[in-house]
Amino acid sequence: MRRHLRFRYIRDAVTADLADAMVFVGGPRQVGKTTFALSLLAEGGNESSPAYLNWDVLADRDEILSARLPPGQPLIIFDEVHKYASWRGLVKGLYDKNRSSISFLVTGSARLDYYRKGGDALQGRYHYYRLHPFTVMEGGRPPSASLVAHLLRFGGFPEPFLRGEDRFHRRWARERSARVVHEDLRDLEQVREVSRLDLLLGHLPACVGSPLSVHRLAKLLQASHDSVERWIAILERLYVCYRLAPFGAKAIRAVRKEKKLYFWDWSGVEAGGARFENMVAGHLLKYCHLVEDTEGHAMELRFLRDTDGREIDFVVLRDGRPEFAVECKSGGRRASPACRYFRERTEIPRFYQVHLGSGDFGDADSDTRVLPFAGFCAELALP
After folding, report:
1. 3 pLDDT band (50/70/90 cuts)?
2. Angle at Cα 264 formed by Cα 259 and Cα 269, nearest 5°?
3. Confidence of residue 110 (pLDDT cuts 50, 70, 90)
4. Which of 331, 338, 326 is nearest to 369 (CA)?
5. Phi, psi of 26, rounded to the nearest 5 degrees
6. Would you call 7 exposed, middle or buried from its count of C-beta atoms within 10 A (0-12, 13-18, 19+)?
7. Is the pLDDT assigned to residue 6 strictly greater than 70?
8. Could you give the CA distance from residue 217 to residue 78 in angstroms, rounded to a whole number?
């Protein structure tokens, strides 16, 4: 794998938006937000640059609280400033006072849109981007089966992806998980029983690929249903996992309440089929977020399942209308019968079945394109 990737996929869009508004960049811990932000500084920057102010550094915190901006810097980067309870008003004041001469980029390992809520002080003053891990099209060109295998094994987070070493990956994953629970959680949320949330986090990877039963998790953890729901919502806000709702097509008896859960770091999912499904989910969610963040369309990633158990893994919606559906299989011999069933009963215009093999063909019986996952990413130009 390449040891250095010069530009991230949102660079051009962020650079354009900085000309007329603040830009917020959220995303998982260690996904490369700081490296990306520093790359936007003149001649490339590093963490010692005066334009980079990190809330977790005490000296930088004093500068932020005193509203003292380093002179002569056309771009100022605030990192993790949302950990300060009154950060919205502080950032608003600095932006309003200096917007004609300084651009502002705010990064954080949590959903900055969520932690912005509680007032509209920043309304109309910022654009929000979600930075994702590396995926097939960003991780290397041309897309190939070997690159897909590498992503499946090490995930798309920059450090383990670029190192490509099992020992490093295992240690990185353990350390990252501990930091999320014991640092990010402590800084941003009021959770008394961290040990049970830690236990929940250890159990959730086994739930990937199947409808999530919060009731079963509550029994396992000896906690209330509401507590487990709240803990999962916290993990979602911290960019650990995300849930997908079902797509309720009118002509089928679709499930309505069940959700499916996936991880931003799919490499922690043990089961091979579930890990592949999670990796595909990550690619499709990245596509949805990029279209939504840059073009303003309302994008949704859902799944399709009826009460008889027939299922298509993913449906992508644009402005409420289905754009295409994707089914995941380890092999590529023929299309799943569910593709034909739902093709005949829904308004989904395109069906794909992706796999880890080499077969690439159209299945006339189900009107489904069956192709390797690398080819699918290239054909749809996924980010």
Report:
1. very low
2. 80
3. confident
4. 326
5. -105, 170
6. exposed
7. no
8. 38
65-91 per-position pLDDT tens digit:
999 999 999 999 999 998 898 888 999
**What span, in angstroms and rounded, lies between the C-alpha atoms of 292 and 259?**
22
| One-letter identity of residue 210 | S
The structure tokens listed for 2 are 């390449």
Query: What are the residue ranges spanned by the domains of the chain?
Result: 11-130, 136-379
Q: How far apart are CA 370 and CA 355, in angstroms?
A: 8
d(CA 7, CA 40): 10
Does the pTM surpass 0.90? The reply is yes
**What CATH superfamily classification does 11-130 receive?**
P-loop containing nucleotide triphosphate hydrolases (3.40.50.300)
CA distances from 255 to 281, 306, 337, 343, 353 (A): 19, 5, 18, 17, 22
The 3-class secondary structure across the chain, one letter per residue, is CCCCCCCCCCHHHHHHHCCCCEEEEECCCCCCHHHHHHHCCCCCCCCCCCCEEECCCHHHHHHHHCCCCCCCCCEEEEECHHHCCCHHHHHHHHHHHHCCCCEEEEEECCCHHHHHCCCCCCCCCEEEEECCCCCHHHHCCCCCHHHHHHHHHHCCCHHHHHHCCHHHHHHHHHHHHHHHHHHHHHHHCCCCCHHHHHHHHHHHHHHCCCECCHHHHHHHHCCCHHHHHHHHHHHHHCCCEEEECECCCCCCCECCCCCEEEECCHHHCCCHHHHHHHHHHHHHHHHHHHHHHHHCCCEEEEEEEECCCCEEEEEEEECCEEEEEEEECCCCCCCCHHHHHHHHHCCCCCEEEEECCCCCEEECCCCEEEEEHHHHHHHCCCC
- 199 or 114, which is more confident: 199
Distances in Å between the alpha carbon of 363 and those of 314, 337, 369, 378? Answer: 18, 11, 6, 20
